[in-house]
Amino acid sequence: MQSTNRAVTDTLQNALSRLTQTRLNYWAEFAVDIPFGVVLIFAGLRRQAIGPLAGVLIVLLGLLLFSLFEYAFHRWLFHGSVEIFAQGHRSHHENPQGYDSLPFFFPALVLLALAGVLVALVPAAYALLLTGVVTLSYVVYGVSHFTIHHHLFRHALARDWAAKHHIHHYHADTNFGVTTALWDIVFGTRYKRAPR
Ligand SMILES: [Zn+2]
Ligand SMILES: [Zn+2]
């Protein structure tokens, strides 16, 4: 019985590991997360009228919260000791233009859990809007990260922005933020060129 369970777990793990290297999985994540984010935002707005000030504050909070998640997941999970997360991210570091990513349904499940926690803490309309903003920020992050590795920017500001992430691929203990350097500044992990 135990060996059957083991065989089933191994087969599932292998299938999942193969799936997460495919282009289909890569783009399926966007196909799930974009409508999911839009639905969350509309569900929040339909539930209760949210004033313009509260709306702006929630959007800003969502952007801030996402940027912190982006930093924390990258630093402590993808470069951490949980093998299932670290393994896929190692593949990305080895082959930055590859399609290694999380299973396409996984981020939506985490975001759903986040919505559940927030609904218990604040009015549901705020919770849904906030999670929707976090979800669409995650989509923006995904597009940003893809573009950084597949596009040569012409504009100096865009090049500087992309360079921060390219540096992370050479100095993996610095520049964990992809969309923003904010949390690298806060936590002191911004790449500093060694003095000559
Ligand atoms: Zn990268
Ligand atoms: Zn990394």
What's this, in brief?
With 196 residues, the protein is an all-alpha fold. The protein has one domain (2-187). The chain is 74% helix and 0% strand.
Write the layout of secondary structure elements.
Elements: H1 2-19, H2 23-47, H3 52-78, H4 83-94, H5 106-121, H6 124-150, H7 156-170, H8 182-187
Helix pairs in contact: 2-6, 3-6, 5-6
The structure holds zinc ion (2 copies).
Q: Which stretches of 5+ consecutive residues score pLDDT under 50? A: none
Total count of domains: 1
- Tell me roughly what share of residues is in helical segments: over 70%
Q: With helices defined by DSSP (H or I, 4 residues minimum), what is the helix count?
A: 8
Mean pLDDT: 93
Query: How many strands in all?
Result: 0
Tell me the distance between the termini. Answer: 63 Å
Strand content: under 5%
Q: What would you report as the Rg, rounded to the nearest angstrom? A: 19 Å
Structural class: mainly alpha
**Coarse shape:** globular
H-E string? HHHHHHHH
Q: Bound small molecules, which ones?
A: zinc ion
